[in-house]
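## retry 2 of 3
previous attempt timed out at serialization; input unchanged, resubmitting
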Amino acid sequence: MSESNFMKLQFASRSENEAFARVAVASFISQLDPTMNELTDIKTVISEAVTNCIIHGYDNKPDGVVTIVTEIVDDEVYITVEDNGAGIEDLEEAKQPLYTSKPELERSGMGFTIMENFMDEVDVVTEVGAGTRIRMKKRIESKKALVN
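## retry succeeded, writing output
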């Protein structure tokens, strides 16, 4: 029988909330005793996903809502980051390294690449005018298991 736990977090699409989201998710998953690298990876993907919601989904307008659901099932973490913003017109193009729809903001265009490299699975569902949902999975190699 698998053991699970979850948390749901919603906040305004304001850039100052990105750090809060990162720390909240990191605090929640700390119950799995992740390594520093695993924790850093997850904090980084939260930053990328939330920033994408704010900048691309809501075009930096602070009246949108970003939702994060984090679920722990045994030694796996599932993270969903969702907005109800603009959606992505061409998802395959958006996933290309260095592609950005906002070059004037000096964005790196590496968000999806970072998410895919730091997580075990990344699934993106998007609809123009309705928003984007990113669901990610990472298996945590507990430090407790490494000691034994």
